[in-house]
Amino acid sequence: MHKAMIFLIAIATFFSTLFGGLVALRLKDHLHLILGFSAGAVIGVAFFDLMPEALELGSEFYSIPTIFSIVALGFLTYLVLDRFVLLHSHDDHAHRGRFGASTLSLHSFLDGIAIGLGFQVSASVGIVVALAVLAHDFSDGINTVNFILKNKGEKRQAFRWLLIDAVAPVLGVLVTLLFSVSEQSLGLLLALFSGFFLYIGASDLIPESHHAHPARMTTIMTLLGAGTLFMIIRLAS
Hints:
Layout (H helix, E strand, L loop, with lengths): L1 H25 L4 H28 L5 H23 L6 H29 L1 H28 L4 H21 L7 H28 L4 H22 L1
Helix pairs in contact: 1-4, 1-5, 1-6, 2-5, 2-7, 2-8, 3-7, 4-5, 4-6, 4-7, 5-6, 5-8
């Protein structure tokens, strides 16, 4: 029974992510507004989903300062990669787009792992985790497409990365049917990725969303993105 439910949820994560990305492709002409919403959504995922989960899973093994140190490590690691490794010049956008999309895809893979681990605890825990994941998989699809498009990527390339991101949580769920990941390790991974997402939202998406565009509407969209993720995650949990 659990395996059938897990399989159905895995399929749902695929379509949720895919639908979000298709919306972003359709509304390419309003990319600055979508970027504003995505910035709020990414930051909302970090604050309202990843950090609380990291604290809940990791506090049994690590102190709270240690967990937040991992968050900071994630933020600073992404900064170093962004400034000194990925971009040798400000004109080299492709690496940045691919790295951002790959980070979101890896996060989606971990989402799938979280669903599978939740069901290893109990069906009720698995369903709650799955609802939270489905809630922001739609946003993940939007964000993945946005990373490619805003870094001068083509629609075809954005769609390929969208498919990778949509398949990632399905693979994550399937992996947990083969073996389990300890809560100790998963807590640290979630903390690390919350740092990644804070950097992506605050240092990349927010500045890009209101660059050469009215700040009022993009700011409203950013607040709307964060508020939407807050409400969805609260309702799901």
